[in-house]
Specification:
Length: 144
């Protein structure tokens, strides 16, 4: 734009505001995407198993993702199923796939083996339902 003499400062201000806005948006997006590295995370899916009320046992095919974060070692434990307890020292995201059969709710826990303290936990629950019979019964007499 052609401004009168002395108004060229507005072009410099507009450019400065544009660059400052761009820089702030980049830093804000980087901050929003960053995960805290001092605390581990635990992600379990699915968290609910749906079964018929007559069926006693529910089978979970679960995926577990977690990180150790600032811990040197964490153990993955499942309440009432000690055969699945396993400890990890690997950094980064750890992925596990498990098949569980249970008749009651259980908890997946990350435990610090040095202090025996539960760091994170996720409950897996069971939902039971009774299927309704939506069939319409019609009674017709077949006599002649």
């Amino acid at each position: 734009m052609n401004y009168p003499k002395g108004f060229k400062i507005f072009d410099k201000i507009k450019k400065s505001i544009y660059y400052i806005t761009l820089l702030c948006s980049v830093f804000c997006s980087m901050y929003a995407l960053a995960k805290p590295i001092d605390k581990p995370y635990l992600e379990v899916s699915p968290t609910v198993c749906v079964t018929e009320s007559e069926q006693k046992i529910c089978q979970f095919n679960i995926k577990i993702n977690f990180t150790l974060a600032s811990f040197k070692e964490l153990c993955l434990a499942i309440t009432n199923l000690p055969q699945y307890t396993q400890c990890y020292t690997k950094k980064g995201v750890i992925k596990e796939h498990l098949k569980l059969q249970t008749s009651h709710s259980i908890k997946i826990q990350l435990i610090d083996p040095l202090t025996n303290q539960v760091v994170k936990e996720q409950e897996l629950s069971i939902a039971r339902y009774k299927a309704s019979d939506y069939r319409i019964k019609r009674r017709f007499g077949w006599s002649l």
